Amino acid sequence: MDAAVIFGSPGIGTSDAGDLKVPSDMLSNSKADGDWAAKSGLFGGNPDRNPDITQLETGAATNTYGESLSGSDGHSEYQVNGSTSQWNNAAAIAGHPEDRIKR
């Protein structure tokens, strides 16, 4: 099963999510509130505004096991251990999209 998580992206270069060749239910995006790069949209095709891409939570949240996860704010915080964005990235690429925490 193919899956992709776009995170901290200044654009995916297309407005058609189908161009990415990933099933739409397995395509996710994360954008932290304080991420200047993701907000810039420099490369066009902002994944944060694409209705065909599942938008994932990056703030503090609770996972499917009841564990508290920390929020990510800046561009370099998406893979911080114990963060919501790290959880979401792992759930998506491990083939457990049902465990993603959506925005």
Describe what you observe in this structure.
The protein is of the alpha/beta class and 103 residues long. It is built from 2 helices and 5 strands. It has helices spanning 36-40, 84-93, and strands at 4-7, 27-30, 54-56, 61-62, 68-69. A hairpin with a 5-residue loop joins β4 and β5.
Layout of secondary structure:
Layout: E1 4-7, E2 27-30, H1 36-40, E3 54-56, E4 61-62, E5 68-69, H2 84-93
Parallel strand pairs: 1-2, 2-3
Antiparallel strand pairs: 4-5
Q: How do the SSEs run, as a string of H and E? A: EEHEEEH
- What is the arithmetic mean of pLDDT? 92
Individual helix count: 2
Low-pLDDT runs: none
User: How many beta strands in the DSSP annotation?
Assistant: 5
Helix content: 10-25%
Q: Class by helix and strand content?
A: alpha/beta
User: What can be said about the biggest beta sheet?
Assistant: 3 strands, parallel
Radius of gyration: 13 Å
Shape: globular
**What's the end-to-end separation, in Å?**
23 Å
User: Which strands sit side by side, in order, in the main sheet?
Assistant: 1-2-3
The portion of residues forming beta strands comes to 5-15%
Key terms:
2 helices, 103 residues, alpha/beta, 5 strands, 15% helix, globular, two-stranded antiparallel ribbon
Summarize the structure.
The chain is α/β, with parallel strands linked by helices and 103 residues long. It is built from two helices and five strands, in the order ββαβββα. A three-stranded parallel beta sheet has the order 1-2-3, with helices on one face. A two-stranded antiparallel sheet has the order 4-5.
